[in-house]
Protein 1
Amino acid sequence: MTRRNPRKYIFSRNIDNFFIDVNDAYKFLIRFFKEFSKRPFHHQELIRQSYEIGLKSLPLITLTGFIVGIVFTKQSRPSLESFGATSWLPSLMGIATVRALGPLVTALISAGKVGSGIGAELGSMRVTEQIDAMEVSAINPFKYLVVTRVIATTISIFVLSLYYSFVGLIGAYINIDGTEGISVISFLQDAFSSIGFLDISTSITKSIIYGFTIGIVGAYKGYNATQGTRGVGRAANQAVVLSIFLIFIEELIIVQIANFIRYF
Amino acid sequence: MLEYNTNGNKAVISINELYRSFSDEPVLKGINLELFKGENIAVLGRSGSGKSVLIKIIVGLLNPDKGEVFVLGKQVDKLNSKELNELRLRIGFSFQNSALYDSMNVFQNLAFPLNMNVKNLGKGEVNDKVEEVLQAVGLLEKINQMPSDLSGGQKKRIGIARTLILKPEIMLYDEPTSGLDPVTSGEINELIIEVQQKFNTSSLIITHDLTCAKNTGNRIAMLDNGKFLHVGKFEEIAEANDEHIKSFFNYNFIQ
């Protein structure tokens, strides 16, 4: 990243650096799409990263999804009980999990676990000259390190998000069955009766966009890390903060678009 | 001091009036140097004198502000990425901190550049080449170890082995003896000479260590404040009537 000489700011140091950052991030994104379509495709590294990012996140996603499913059902019951509508619980949980909780909670957990991991790993490789070592060995480090990680993150978070919804609904079913007593078939019929094509396609779109955001932000921050070990810590931290910030902005925009389509 | 006669040999690296600055702070101020085939030049200078910047420009990691750098007849900053990669395959770069990939073991570190750059290479051939270079640096027994299990000197040797696996014509060493004890430094110096003789390479050795410069360089280029104060044999530089050179030599212990 280029930083301006202190004596030559156009606006002020912070404003100038903000625009330089935006420009660098834009170039990084464009480079990703250029490199993405070029050969060679590093299949082995992609599989390895998918394992590291996806499979190793399964225990955390299982635990979180299950607990949130139970807790959300428990928290929603009193409100529905007050006007005798506890039978709506499966439907409510279906909508909540598929439309919002699945993609959003998976993305937030992954931003902390995966985004910080990518930021720290690439940052550490940058400051210890491992990325330069690849470059001087005629290996394209961007293609090998960044492209594979971003694709692996996008695919993994999409799959994890589906898995989270599945586990969340199991948690909700266990709680509803324990209190109201309901068969699995009835629960699933009720839960999916209110979910339409738009809900599922929006949920899939969200999880793909969130996964891409987490991957590209983590890679961008790590790949451009500077100033030794302090820079590695900062890259990991900024990867999480910026990913979460962008995920909420994206959530807002996607929900607005989905609602516009729904009520059009 | 190694004897070398440049007569008749072609320059493999030619640097003409090279300038480079960072945030308006000049680091290199019009550098000229020629490295001939089969020759070792030690670039000697204090920390921050621009030595590392110089070799990063040679290998295309940094671009010059002004001036020309020709490596094996090609002007580095005018090459496209494909041409630059083809050139890089003919240059070995040994990093100051070895820069071994810490998620890979020694074998994987060495096989990685080979697998990525040489197509249709069988597993047996990769194994043979890895073992050959590990043998050359005397660390065959470390083949399955992780970089974190190696000492500083061993990491340097493995780093050198990794560059040798692609059979480079030019070796660039960035501070090969920094952070090492005198005995290990001596072993690395010997290894640099062995590499030159066995693999027939030409080398540029960036160092602030007089002993390393004296023992590995056919010629010494004394860099100070972005300019070469003197380029010549070690004895000539040691006797040069220049205050900066004298003070540098006075602060160093020569073996």
Protein 2
Amino acid sequence: MSNPQWLNDIFAAVMAAAALYSAGRLVAARIWSRPIHRDVDVAHVLMGTAMAGMLVSDLNPFPTGVWEVVFSLLATWFIWRCYQFLRGPNPSIGYHQHVHHRLSRRLIHLVMSLAMLYMYLAAAPAAVASGGSMAMGAATGATANFVLLPLLFIAALFVSGIWEVDRIGHLSLANATRDHAAPAFASMSGLPRTTAGNVAASDLRVTQEGPPWIAPRLEGTAHIAMCVTMGYMLVLML
Amino acid sequence: MTSQTLSGALGTLPGLSSTSDATKRQAWARPDGRRTLQLALATLWLLDGVLQLQSFFFTKSFGLQMISGMSLGNPSVVARPIAWSATTIGHHAVFTDACFALAQITIAVAIAWGPTVKIGLGASVAWAVGVWWIGEGLGGVLNGTANPLNGAPGAVMIYALLAVLLWPTDRGGAHVPYIAARAVGAPVANALWFVLWGSLSYFALIGANRSSDGLHHLISAEAAGEPGWVIWIDRHAASLVDHNGLAVMVTLSVLLGIVAIGTYLPRAPANATVAMAAVIGLTFWVVGENFGALFTNGATDVNSGPLLILLAVSYWRLRPRLEPATAEMPLGLEGA
């Protein structure tokens, strides 16, 4: 039993659009010298392309093995980013300046990278059995005993997606600019996980409005689309 | 960075000058307890909506087997609309299921999106009542098959209850003991808790639930289609209660009754019963509901376990806070 192809086509179209948009952000940020979260946008490009290819095999540009390597590297990168955060803010990274994209954002992209890896590893045996197609389907055999793992991925993805919906209404260009100093205030108000040492003097010295972040609400929308689509694909694999 | 934008980040930051209304509106703050529970409820709705997109629900079997089966044993006035709906859904499976999924995802987004939270919660109540009737046959309440261990009186009614209790108004006064009391006040919230858990206590002892093998058969039947490790849990749980069904259900009924009454106790024992409620909810979810049967590709929701836990969290009594006037008393006045 397989899902209607039109449904997979819709999700694939959304993912292709999200990947194209994220690629556009990377180009626009370079041309206009505007800040973005480069690794997040790169991750969205890769995940969007990969999921579109999993949903509609004609859109898949690379073989499964390549994707497995790509998402292994991406997961390693986000593990490193989490480690960097836990070790302390690094002014050269620029990432620390945006409170909405701190540890939680790095963790969820780590989870998303691992979920992509899971989907390829779990779907590969079925793909071989069905002649190479990456059609999503319920887990079978030994994979069926690991269904708690995708359930955890689904829970994390949907929590992140819903929290992003809550937050997205509050994001704006004005907020994005203001967020240059957000960590300092967040620390003072005890919001995110920061120590007094993280109330860095360099943060407090940010007194000028820099160039605004590129469309943070659209970035959030792309993230929500990623979370829902990935959750959908994982649900089909339960 | 201007002082205007600085104050927007915290809402109110001493020493900073006035903030524009626009900045105040846009300032994002960490969700409070009630908003966090609303977002958790929205997450469950989103999961339900996506579960509805599983392949089984796009087939005739969803209407003609699953929905139709809900009419069995129910009074005619309840069963006829179910039978009509089952036929309609069965014959237009793709369209109706797509609509169902879209409705639930829309409810999730509406609750999560701040400006539409009331619309989302209101829609979730209306949707839940409809699903309780058509999709769950009133949770087996009228045909005597309700068993709290496998989700009675219907998980979807707990969605509705949570939507009411998490409604974003404050009718409970300035000093509400727990989150669920904020919208409706402590007396009404206590009564709703008592009715829910009291009814679970009652359902534990009706019909076949009292028989010595009823519980064993119930747990054994749940194993179909589950992965090996879930079957292992079911097999061991079923053997544990074999021939002891009556004793287990009487004990469960007593525990559920204690939870029901617990809401009227002082803070510490009330919290103990709330914690017990959460543990019972988790036990139901793992043993009786097999994680909402999520691994069988036929689950429309997570079943009642997670919702009972969410409900318990909303009834957790927090330690009373110091009055702001006391907390911020100038040092020079202390001991005066």
